[in-house]
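lol ok so funny story. i was supposed to be doing the assay writeup but got distracted and ended up predicting the structure for this chain instead. priorities right. anyway since i did it might as well share w the group, maybe its usefull for someone
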Amino acid sequence: MLIVVVAHEFGHFLVAKRAGVVVEEFGIGFPPRLFGFMWRGTLYSVNALPVGAFVKSRSENDAGVEGSLASKGPWKRFAVYAAGPFVNILLAFVLFTTYFGLPQATVVSDGVLVYQVQSDSPAGAAGLKPGDVIVRVDGEMMDTWSRLHRTLAGATPGDLLRLEVLRNGSTISVDVSPTFSEELGRNVIGIVISQNLVQAVEPGSPAAEAGILVGDALLGVNGRGLINQTALEEALAALDDSSGAVFTLLRDTKSFTVEFTAAQINEGKLGLGLLWAPGARLEHRATPLTSAALAGAQLMLSMPSLIVDSIPMMQEDPSLAFVGPIGAGQLSVEAVRVFGVSNLIFIAGLISLGIALFNLLPVPPLDGGGMLVALIEAARRGRRLSERAVRLAYAFGTALLITLVVFATTSDILRLVQGRDFGL
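and the output, tada:
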């Protein structure tokens, strides 16, 4: 979090210098000061409390002082205030791109398995069936789900694609023309893909008695995801002799669970026949830079809608909506424990974007408040707002921020004391 805040203040610092503002100090951390040095009229300091950073300019609110921020025109002040959030948005994009570009465990197979075909879709019209394995599209190997999605995305609706399909041990060719889905925002051919498909259920078997049907898909055992038959056998072998197993399955678009006893599992005759995507395995692959950058940009563009969707959760537990440095630290530790060290990059991106969005709120003394005042004065052709109005706005905004800080810090401390986490 310190790096994110330093980047924010460094944005203010660079643009302020460029605008001719006299910057007296650029500090990392908050006083008391540990050490510092002067360079080109600015004191660069490192301070004892590593929870933030600051830029101290000459008489920020007095327009009569030469070299002060207040003495500059509205557009220069707007640029100085906007620089901090802008750097945080740029940093978030770089962090998200880096995160999505890291080598990650990817399920790879010798083709993608078709779980379901919509009857009124291009795939249905072309004769694709559940259990088919799409091996190639226009000669390109389809070894991951994402590769199939990217190939369809690159096609023009109406184009005819040649699919090489494995069906019952034989290879056939199928021509299909993708259509654009307004609901999904991408090209589709009307199929659902999965890692496996229930191909047979033995009559009278535990699987049949549990209600499993041909055409279902097995998603996992006791919450453990499955990619091939070996993974299923390992999951069953790892079970305690005295405990059973919960199978999670997919039927159409809904998931459901069934339970098997230890005795049924130990007998090894569940009566369930599965067709798996051929050659399925885990490989660590790096995402191409352009794809990683696109994923990062899409995540950032979706953030406002995600915030709106999370409002009910915020209303239910406001302590999860506002976190301070303590909460950010706890969230980082929890994320690393659950998802690994690389997830710190993702968390840092979220924090950077969150700081940017928070500072863009049009409330003084946040950057958005300073930007709003500058815009109003620009619309007034440079005529200043009254000092009384500005002071009242800053007093109200400061009181609101202090309240939020106290609330966030109290919530963070209570969460730790009560042993609660963020539920990752």
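The chain is about 45% helix and 25% strand. The longest strand covers residues 23-39.
back to the writeup now i swear
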